[in-house]
Amino acid sequence: MSTYVDLAVSPVVNASGIYTDFGGSVLSPTVRQAVDEANSSWASMTELLPAAGRVIADLLGVEAAHVVPGVAASLALCVGACMTGANGEWMEQLPDTAAIPRANVVMQRAHRYKYARCALVSGARLREVGDDSTTTKAELRAALGPDVACVLHPVHLDGTNGGIPLAEVVELAHEAGVPVVVDAAYLSYPTELIASFATTGADLVCFSAKYFFGPNAGGFVYGRADLVDALAAIDFTRFESGDHLLFGRVFKMDRSTVVATTVALREWLAMDHEARWAAYGRRAERMIADLAVLPAKVQAGHFTLDERVLTEPVNAVVIRPDGEIAPSAASLDSRLAEGNPSIRGIVVDDVLVIVLETVLESEDVLVVERLLEAFGTVAR
Ligand SMILES: *Cc1c(COP(=O)(O)O)cnc(C)c1O
Predict the structure, then answer these.
(1) By C-alpha distance, which of 240, 221, 236, 247 is closest to 97?
(2) For residue 354, how far is its CA from the centre of ligand 1 (angstroms)?
(3) Best mutation site among 197, 208, 212 for ligand 1, i.e. most ligand atoms within 8 A of its Cβ?
(4) Ligand 1 in reach of 208 Cβ (< 6 A)
(5) Cα separation of 344 and 29, whole Å?
(6) What is the C-alpha separation between 53 and 98, in angstroms, rounded?
(7) Measuring from atom 7 of ligand 1, which residue has the nearest CA?
(8) Residues 22-79 pLDDT 10s
(9) 10 Å Cβ neighbour count for 201?
(10) Which pTM was predicted?
(11) Which atom of ligand 1 is the closest one to the Cα of 154?
């Protein structure tokens, strides 16, 4: 920890799960070794990127793929690729879209989400259809005019809010000759899910490496070869050496990010996930036993990537303090956060969730100690 000490930065025990603000995920020893190797030798990025893309496409059995610096950047690159295709002059104009015929991104209003903002960095304009709870097929069809670059579909929202699901969106969009870009950032488990969006006919599908133990600033896009090629053509490479000055230059990656994303995905696909869940389960049981003395209901649970508390498969310890005699979940959480190291859990309604997926096993004892202390020392 001497680097953090030198920087006067307090280390964090991340009991919240995968969040960019805590630096995403932790790399496995295999991925770290790949990072070291990438760092110890030069390679041409213009050879490395297509090679990594080929490996990812083959691993998943999809047409083409490309490594990107995360999903947020990939949304801008995907929409850019849909606007320009292979047209180099248009590529160079982005994010100025005045002369580009297809410069609108269509989204269902019920799909409003924060990352839509990132897609618009490309210069595209947002055209929302429907209302907060529904979009009709007629409304979507009417919005898909000749000025539309793509439909952006955050697929984790399917089935949650009355919007039109991906398969039907693809059908309508393709009738109008419009590609569909899918944000599937965290839908990398179960692993079969990853390639399943290709079968719906989606044209570009984006995944974040932070959700499969890859680098925080890594990810990949797979899909239709011509669009993946267009995306590759507007990425950060060839800015000095190529024909066009491209806005994708701002989304730069290290060799190690490209390598780490690829190796982490390969490891994730081959991983024994049942054993991974079982290990969280065992750690949760141990913690629950150690916390039995607390005036609280302490149970194993599952904290979802869309921030809900369920039961299975276990990846968390869920602490419901006894309202009569114990401090509230929120005050316990602040107490843990204020300590050194800062322990950052998550409060959902009146429970405190300790997400074990991001707590290192070696930190479990400390978390238990600090919880016992917090219950004793926080004023009601
Ligand atoms: C994390 C996330 C993103 C952004 O991904 P990065 O790889 O961090 O840029 C986009 N969409 C969703 C749904 C996410 O969870």
Answers:
(1) 247
(2) 22
(3) 208
(4) yes
(5) 24
(6) 32
(7) 70
(8) 999 999 999 999 999 999 999 999 999 999 999 999 999 999 999 999 999 999 999 9
(9) 17
(10) 0.96
(11) 13
